[in-house]
């Protein structure tokens, strides 16, 4: 590998790390409808039972330094379902940057009519952040720019969200991380935490369940991400639920990718899902797609709830 190629890899690694550390880079998920707890703290308790989800995303397979993300969350209701509590964890590697995050969520739920509920939620936590520039391969020995590691630093953050749902419809808006965290790129532990509205990432999500027949239900859903100075990104997804057991879906992310999704409801409590993203940009020439898998488990199953409500809330 010649010097130019090596420098290209080094630049790519630094860029990916910079996105995560200084541009408040937010992870993205194709199976966002199964990972709402990570996005919106007001979702806590909306399932009306204790629910846990784990997700693994391997983005742009074959591209060195591409993001790898794992999340785990658990949430449930309290006090006659008026309150919701949740815990979310994330581990992520992007280039030379490694991050581990933990957030605790609290939601207050208000009954709206006989079937609806409106919730307001907040979350707080921290990100354990480190950059290992010694992993960057260069053409020069003892390159001083790549000999140091950034010490592990703790980046506090907080978020806010609102969420409304009935047995067939949901809509929510959230700002998962309200503080802009910046880490000095000189090997020091200098950190800047700033409440900067211009860098807020807004997430809007919505979905609806259409019963087609006794054995088929359709669930269109959408998630829109917005931040100042960048174009809107929308994930538009259509799922079909067959015989209350198999989910099959397709998804489109604006100017980025197409995806296929499949989920199997193994038992009323346990499900597993997989998605594959095909990149539509020039980046497609340098990767073999994106794989994502999720596992969900409900610790208590309320048999009185309708199948439509179960389909919607997953």
Provide a quick synopsis of the model:
The chain is mainly beta and about 325 residues long.
Question: What can you see in these coordinates?
Answer:
The protein has helices at 3-21, 36-39, 307-313, and strands at residues 51-58, 68-78, 83-94, 97-112, 116-131, 153-165, 169-175, 179-183, 191-195, 202-208, 210-211, 216-226, 233-242, 246-253, 257-265, 270-279, 290-298. By secondary structure, it is mainly beta. It has one domain (3-313): Beta Barrel (Porin), CATH 2.40.160. The strands form two sheets. It has a 14-stranded antiparallel barrel. Strand 4 and strand 5 (116-131) form a beta hairpin. The protein is globular, with a radius of gyration of 21 Å. The N and C termini lie far apart (48 Å). The model is unreliable at 1-11, 13-23 and 305-311 (pLDDT under 50).
Shape type: globular
Low-confidence stretches: 1-11, 13-23, 305-311
Q: How many beta strands in the DSSP annotation?
A: 17
Instruction: Calculate the terminal CA-CA distance, rounded to whole Å.
Output: 48 Å
Backbone CA Rg? 21 Å
Overall residue-averaged pLDDT value: 85
Observed structural traits:
globular, Porin, two-stranded antiparallel ribbon, mainly beta, 17 strands, 314 residues
How is the topology of this model organized?
Layout: H1 3-21, H2 36-39, E1 51-58, E2 68-78, E3 83-94, E4 97-112, E5 116-131, E6 153-165, E7 169-175, E8 179-183, E9 191-195, E10 202-208, E11 210-211, E12 216-226, E13 233-242, E14 246-253, E15 257-265, E16 270-279, E17 290-298, H3 307-313
Antiparallel strand pairs: 1-2, 1-17, 2-3, 3-4, 4-5, 5-6, 6-7, 7-10, 8-9, 10-12, 11-12, 12-13, 13-14, 14-15, 15-16, 16-17
């Amino acid at each position: 590998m010649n010097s130019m190629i090596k420098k290209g890899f080094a630049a790519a690694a630094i860029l990916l790390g910079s996105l995560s550390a200084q541009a408040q880079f937010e992870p993205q998920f194709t199976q966002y409808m199964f990972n709402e707890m990570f996005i919106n703290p007001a979702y806590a308790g909306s399932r009306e039972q204790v629910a846990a989800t784990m997700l693994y995303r391997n983005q742009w397979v074959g591209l060195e330094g591409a993001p790898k993300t794992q999340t785990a969350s658990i949430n449930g209701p309290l006090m006659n379902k008026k309150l919701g509590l949740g815990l979310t964890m994330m581990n992520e590697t992007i280039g030379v940057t490694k991050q581990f995050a933990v957030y605790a969520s609290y939601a207050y739920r208000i009954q709206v009519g006989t079937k609806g509920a409106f919730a307001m939620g907040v979350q707080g936590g921290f990100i354990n952040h480190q950059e290992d520039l010694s992993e960057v391969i260069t053409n020069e020995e003892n390159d001083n720019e790549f000999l140091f590691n950034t010490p592990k630093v703790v980046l506090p953050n907080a978020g806010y969200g609102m969420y409304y749902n009935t047995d067939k419809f949901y809509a929510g808006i959230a700002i998962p991380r309200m503080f802009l965290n910046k880490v000095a790129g000189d090997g020091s532990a200098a950190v800047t935490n700033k409440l900067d509205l211009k860098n807020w990432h807004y997430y809007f999500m919505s979905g609806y369940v259409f019963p087609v027949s006794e054995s088929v239900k359709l669930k269109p859903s959408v998630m829109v991400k917005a931040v100042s100075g960048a174009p809107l990104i929308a994930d538009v997804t259509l799922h079909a639920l067959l015989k209350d057991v198999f989910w099959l879906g397709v998804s489109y992310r604006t100017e980025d990718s197409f995806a296929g999704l499949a989920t199997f409801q193994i038992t009323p409590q346990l499900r597993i899902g997989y998605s594959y993203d095909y990149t539509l940009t020039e980046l497609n020439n340098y990767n073999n797609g994106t794989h994502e898998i999720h596992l969900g488990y409900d610790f208590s199953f309320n048999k009185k709830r309708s199948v439509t409500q179960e389909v919607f809330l997953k």
